[in-house]
Amino acid sequence: MKMELIRAEGLKLKRLCRWIPLMQGIILISMTALEWYLYFRQGPGGVYAGFNVMYMFISFVFLLGITILASITAGTEHETKAWKQLLTTPVPKRSIYLAKLSWIFILQLCTVVITVVGMCLIWVLYTNEPMPWKIMILQPLFVCLSSLPMMAIQMWFSTVFSNQALPLAVGIFGSISSLFLARSSSSIVHLLPWSYPSLSSPLVSGHEQWVGISLGVGLLLSFLGALMFARREFE
Questions:
Q1: What's the whole-model pTM score?
Q2: Can you say whether residue 133 is alpha, beta or left, with left for phi > 0 and alpha for psi between -120 and 50 degrees?
Q3: Among 6, 21, 211, 215, which is disulfide-ready with 111 (CB 3.0 to 4.6 Å)?
Q4: Backbone angles phi, psi at 92, to 5 degrees
Q5: Which helix (H) or strand (E) holds 98?
């Protein structure tokens, strides 16, 4: 996949897509700070309990952002009837699909950076405790990486259905479900892609294996989606 294609897809992004990572970061930081201040700051964990609070919301915020980005990215092509014209270019269809998917991943990496910077700023302003760099960086980064299967699923749904109601419904339901699935005692439930972000947090024992599983499943689903997209005919 050529970098020129990725840059071209970046130029086609709606302005809202570029604002979504900032909104995700602000929402996540605000929810974490408010919940911690109201209910956890006097607890035994002190300021470090903030990362436990972030764990409660981070999967929901990332998966919801992915759902919206995939819907906007594919929905724009559906609305303008641009798929057929776009796919008549000499560029391979699967490359177009993967370029769009790459931008969702890039924008979520931006969410990681915004979240880390925001949390560091709050930490410096509120406490003199040493900065816990490892969990500060790895918690949002691992959640982002483990969201790759959901990126692939949502991108495929959004390209298949011109009406974005169903992809959005699936994504929103999955985002809400992610708050509870990882806490299930069933190992079968943990195999669902919506469980991966929460299971990949450094606060969870054995999280490294879930990061690896997420990357493997995500890459597999991405390439399967690209192959199916390449065989599809658009009106």
A1: 0.91
A2: alpha
A3: 21
A4: -55, 140
A5: helix 93-126
